[in-house]
Amino acid sequence: MARITLSLDRPTGNFWIDTGLVVLIQQFGEGEHEAEEVLRKLVDRLVQKTGKSGVYFDQATGQFREYEKVNWVYPTNLFIKVSGVAPKIEIQINGKKEKFFTQPPVFDLSLKLRKSKNPCDICGDVVPLTDAKMWMYPFVVEPGKFGTFYPGTKRGLKLCARCALAGLAGYLGWLWKAQGRNALHFFIFHADLREMKRLHEEVLRPLQTKGSGGGTAPVAFFGPYLHETTLGLLLALFAHVPESDRLSETARRLLATLLGASAEAPPSAVTLYAVTGKPGQAFNMQALREFSRLQPLYRLYEQWRQRLQEIAPNPHQRLVDVFRQFQQRRDGDTETLWRDRIARAILEFDDPLPFVEQFLFEARAREEHPRPLTPGTLDVLNHYIQEVLGMEEQFRRTLAGFGHTLGAAAHEHNEMGLLYSLRNARNPEDFYRVLNDAQFRLEITVPEALLQLERGERIAGVPWGRVKTLLAIYAMNAYLRRSAPQTETSQPTEQEE
Ligand SMILES: [Zn+2]
Fold it and tell me: How do the residues of the chain divide into helix, strand and coil, expressed in percent and rounded to 5?
């Protein structure tokens, strides 16, 4: 009988297998274990009753008996395709031969280890190996589904018993969020094994949503795309760092340390793996991304909260509302592509402005009763523009001030078309032509800082396109604020200083 040795000192560096090792150590403890027993207990946790029943033929009594059907728990059943087996017998019923199980079928996985010893593809141990199956490691053994993401492993993996069982346990360690037939997202946190074990036990488990068909991942918002849902997950986690009603004080401090929010020595960085695919008969992977800059993201989150504190009683919720808004109802469906693109830019410390501009002009401005952006949106963007995109504060304020004047004057003269011409400017010449036009038709003055085109098509050191985009956002938002009924959403915020 094969035995496996579990130790927190022996990570493999593979995010899936290491997640499984953490689950195994939580369940069985460190030390030596009998492989078959570990396998049996894992299968028990991954199989559940379906609520349906079947019949088998009991040979001892010569009678048919009912049994409760079982299957792999969702969403594991999209990956583990092994079905229940039992011996069958042929019986004549009304002159027709039919086959029946002689006992309830058993959902069994087996570890077929070779006699010879070779190095395991994951951990390198020289021991008897088995051919990796999908139930051990979904990412490598189905080239059609995962091969594009792991092209180097198409030959098939050979795993030792420990890695194979950790692979199966991996299914119990992920967080997931499903959206019917549209999308299944799953998330795996990865760092040092000890930290990951504490993260799972103290933080993720208490925060996991339970008993809902939609998943186990706590999210501030979600949609069919990977980046928006990932940002939704991170915001939900970040909320527990400053204060928490769900986590113990130790757990809260652990999370703070892992995210670099406390004074304690920064631990090894936590990485988040996010996978999205379409659930169907199987899982069709569409994206797999690695996010390793969670600490700078958390710092950004903290700064945003501080900034929003001035205008909102619950700055976390306001921040969530700011990101959540980039969606639109369309034919009974919610389109969230803008939110996904904005989320991707933020998660990658890239430029979200073009997508905000697109959303404002293509979605908001075309609504039946157009609304401006959620109050606080410009504060969130302004902070990002300064901290991440490095735009100089004074120039940004000049743009904000002029954008506001432009939007207000366009509203007064009923010239929304001018704002679309601004948005559509394709080069600096176009841009200046529109500004000139605005100056003439709206009788406003363009600030001098905008008029100097520098080398490399920059204005005040900023690529002209970004200046145009930002100006279009400020102007359209001011325009929409004037059009909207005077409600809470039309409160002036910082950009009107
Ligand atoms: Zn191994």
Answer: 45, 20, 35
Give the model confidence (pLDDT) of 318-349 as tens digits: 999 999 999 998 888 899 999 999 999 999 99
Instruction: Assess contact for 183 and 278: CB atoms under 8 A.
Output: yes
pTM for the model:
0.92
pLDDT tens-place string over residues 245-268:
999 999 999 999 888 887 776 677
Q: From the CA of 183, how far away is ligand 1's center (Å)?
A: 32
- Give the residues across from 91 on adjacent strands: 98
How many A from CA of 30 to the centre of ligand 1?
Answer: 16
Question: In sequence order, what are the beta bridge partners of 184?
Answer: 178, 277
Residues 164/151, Cβ–Cβ less than 8 Å? no
CA of 232 to the centre of ligand 1 (A): 34
Joined tokens for residue 242: 């400053």
Q: Radius of gyration over alpha carbons of the chain, in Å?
A: 29
Ligand 1 midpoint to CA 44 (Å) = 23
Give residue 136 CA to ligand 1 midpoint distance, Å. 11
What is the CA(159)–ligand 1 centre distance, in A?
A: 5
Q: pLDDT class for 280, splitting at 50, 70, 90? A: confident
Rounded distance from Cα 191 to ligand 1 centre (Å): 18
Predicted pLDDT of residue 188: 95
Q: In 10 A of CB 80, how many CB atoms?
A: 22
Decide which of 264 and 55 is more confident: 55
303 CA to centre of ligand 1 in angstroms: 43
Q: 289 alpha carbon to ligand 1 midpoint, in Å?
A: 24
Cβ proximity of 100 and 92 under 8 Å: no
d(CA 217, CA 420): 40
Q: What does the block give as tokens for 56?
A: 């088998």
